[in-house]
Amino acid sequence: MTAAAPSSSAATSRPSGDICLSLQNVGISYGSNEAVRGVYMDIPRGKVTAFIGPSGCGKSTVLRALNRMNDLIEGCTLKGRVLFDGQDLYARDVDAVEVRRRIGMVFQKPNPFPKSIYENIAFGARINGYRGDMDELVERSLRKAAIWDETKDKLKESGYALSGGQQQRLCIARAIAIEPEVILMDEPCSALDPISTLKIEEMMHELKKSYTIVIVTHNMQQAVRVSDMTGFFNVTVNAEGDGKVGCLEEFAVTEQIFNAPSQQATQDYVSGRFG
Asked: Does domain 3-270 have CATH number 3.40.50.300?
């Protein structure tokens, strides 16, 4: 069933089951420029949620708000509430560093540390106080990221020696190693070839058994293949009529978004009429 969110024109279909992250009337601005407004969304635990939409609609901005990465951008402010397990991530007593440990991030371009493959995994775990068997953690993380077989004999080599697709899986392994509960991925396959993309998509299906995943993608076929829920972000004219602002147009089960959306704008986007 689809219902309008309070104070929002977006059509949202509430996911069944346990809610991991909840956005309540979230608006984000860069200085005086409003980037996105009025986002209501409940992201289910143990699922893959995809954000799609045209460039400039705010989907990456909203993704970064989920682990307070926007805090690192001067002048960026957030209104509304972002709840993680019912706790407001932007409350004064919440440690942003701990938020980012529990909610990891994988970026658009692979960015391995200038260290060995082994140290790419071990470094973050070590500074986060990991006291267990480091060799076992490195192997487990690389296995979960589906890159152990390709790296097990060259763990002392530089992460830069890997191909682009392998580097991205190394970065996913690095995020897994600090034992987060949620993994955010900002267009993780946009710079990769089709074979590398397929490996990461297959890995996502395995990872969601242990983690909640939120992904931004411009590839609608990828959203269909990997996600359980999809949020379609769009751009609208702001209240003053002198600029544009991003908004959440519709949020529902992926099958509904692509086969029977409730909003005409969603239908137009997924059918390729704009974007």
From this structure: yes
> pLDDT at position 6, please?
43
- Please give the Cα distance from 40 to 44 (Å, whole number): 13
Angle (CA) 145-175-229 rounded to 5° is 75
Instruction: Read off the tokens for 196.
Output: 């590398």
pTM of the entire predicted model: 0.90
Q: How far apart are CA 27 and CA 165, in angstroms?
A: 34
CB within 8 Å of 7: residues ≥ 6 apart? 25, 38, 40
Which of the residues in the chain have pLDDT under 50? 1-8
User: Are the beta carbons of 140 and 132 closer than 8 angstroms?
Assistant: no
First to last CA, the chain: 27
Cα–Cα distance for residue pair 85/70, rounded to 1 Å: 20
Token readout for 65 is 């708000």
In the chain, domain spans:
3-270
Instruction: Report the C-alpha gap between 179 and 53 in whole angstroms.
Output: 30
pLDDT attached to residue 10: 64
Check if the beta carbon of residue 28 is closer than 8 Å to that of residue 70: yes
Q: How many CA atoms lie within 13 A of 179 on its CB side?
A: 12
